[in-house]
Write a structure and sequence with these properties.
By secondary structure, this protein is α/β, with parallel strands linked by helices. The protein has helices spanning about 90-95, 135-140, 180-190, 205-215, 250-255; strands at about 15-25, 30-35, 50-55, 70, 75, 80-85, 105-110, 120-130, 145-150, 170, 180, 195-200, 220-225, 240-245, 245-250, 255-260. The chain folds into 2 domains: about 5-110, Translation factors (Elongation Factor Tu (Ef-tu), domain 3), CATH 2.40.30.10; about 120-260, Nucleotide-binding domain of ferredoxin-NADP reductase (FNR) module (Rossmann fold, 3-Layer(aba) Sandwich), CATH 3.40.50. The strands form 3 sheets. A 7-stranded antiparallel sheet has the order 4-3-7-1-2-6-5. Helix 3 packs parallel to helix 4 (about 205-215).
C-alpha cells in the first residue's frame, strides 16, 4: 500500500556511487561529515541515503561487511552533501571515523520528503536528538522564520541545535535550555497559536506525543520516522510500520508520513 504523498518515491535504486569526504567535524556528541556528489540528484528535505565506507567496512577476522547505514541528509548545496550521526554501533562508529580524503559508497536520495505547509500555516519544526537532521535542510528551504523546537538528552548533545537558526532548546536533565521534553515546548507554542503545520523527527515515543498533541488541536503534522533499513528501496520489508490503512515501508512510502495516517500505539 502506498500513500498519496509517496507518489514520487523510487521503486528502483539510484546507481550507487563513490564520493570523497571533503570535511568532517564533531558537533557535541555527534559527528558531521560532508562528501562531494557533483553529479547526484538534489535531495528533498526528509529524504535519506544509504552509506558505507569504501574502506575497512567489515568486522571479524574475515572482514564480514556491515550493512549500509541509512542517514537523512543534513544539508545539500554546490554539489556537496552533509550528514550528521551518532556513533552507536560498529557501522556508525566506522562512518564517524571517516576523515577528509577517504571515500564513501553512497546510494540516494531515497524515500519521500516533506511537503510545504498549506493554507498559510506557519511551519513549526520539532526535533529530538539526531532527529534534528532533516529539519536543518528543511529550515534552509523554508527560511529562518520557521520556528525550531529541539530536545536533547543533555548539554553534550545540545550543540547540534546550532545547526538550525534561532532554535529553542530543552534537555531531559536540565543541563541546557528548558528542563523538560520538547513536546512541552510544542504544547506551549500551539496553545498560543494553533495555526501551524508541524514537522517532526525523533524517537518513536516523541513522535507519538507530537501526533497526539496535533490531533487534539486539529493541527496538520508530517513525521519523519526513524527505522533500521537494510536495503533502502523496498526489497527487504525490514522497515514496515502500521498505519490506519495497513503496513507501509518507510524507505519508499516514507520516511515522512502524514501524522493522520498513524493511530495511537503505532510505535509500540
Amino acid at each position: 500500500m502506498r500513500t498519496s504523498a509517496a507518489a514520487s518515491a523510487p521503486f528502483a535504486p539510484i546507481e550507487r556511487r563513490r564520493c570523497e569526504i571533503v570535511a568532517a567535524r564533531d558537533v557535541g556528541a555527534y559527528r558531521s561529515f560532508a562528501c562531494a556528489d557533483p553529479s547526484g540528484p538534489v535531495p528533498r528535505a526528509g529524504q535519506f541515503y544509504m552509506l558505507a565506507s569504501a574502506g575497512r567496512w567489515g568486522a571479524g577476522a574475515d572482514g564480514r561487511p556491515f550493512l549500509p547505514r541509512a542517514l537523512s541528509v543534513l544539508r545539500a548545496g554546490d554539489g556537496t552533501l552533509e550528514f550528521l550521526l551518532e556513533a552507536v554501533g560498529p557501522g556508525t562508529r566506522r562512518l564517524a571515523q571517516a576523515e577528509p580524503g577517504e571515500s564513501l559508497w553512497l546510494l540516494g536520495p531515497l524515500g519521500v520528503g516533506f511537503n510545504a505547509p498549506a493554507d498559510g500555516r506557519r511551519p513549526l519544526l520539532v526535533g529530538g536528538g539526531i532527529g534534528v537532521v532533516p529539519l536543518a535542510i528543511w529550515q534552509d528551504e523554508l527560511g529562518p522564520h520557521a520556528t525550531a523546537l529541539l530536545g536533547f538528552r543533555g548539554a553534550l548533545h545540545a550543540p547540534a541545535a546550532e545547526l538550525l537558526a534561532g532554535a529553542r532548546v530543552c534537555t531531559d536533565d536540565g543541563s541546557a535550555g528548558h528542563h523538560g521534553r520538547v513536546t512541552e515546548l510544542l504544547a506551549s507554542e500551539l496553545d498560543e497559536d494553533a495555526r501551524a503545520a508541524v514537522y517532526a523527527c525523533g524517537p518513536p515515543a516523541m513522535l507519538e506525543a507530537v501526533r497526539a498533541l496535533c490531533a487534539a488541536r486539529a493541527v496538520p503534522a508530517q513525521l519523519a520516522l526513524e527505522a533500521g533499513m537494510a536495503c533502502g528501496f523496498g526489497a527487504c520489508f525490514g522497515c514496515v510500520v502500521p498505519t490506519t490503512a495497513g503496513y507501509v515501508r518507510l524507505c519508499v512510502d516514507g520516511p515522512v508520513l502524514d501524522a493522520a495516517l498513524l493511530a495511537a500505539g503505532w510505535e509500540s
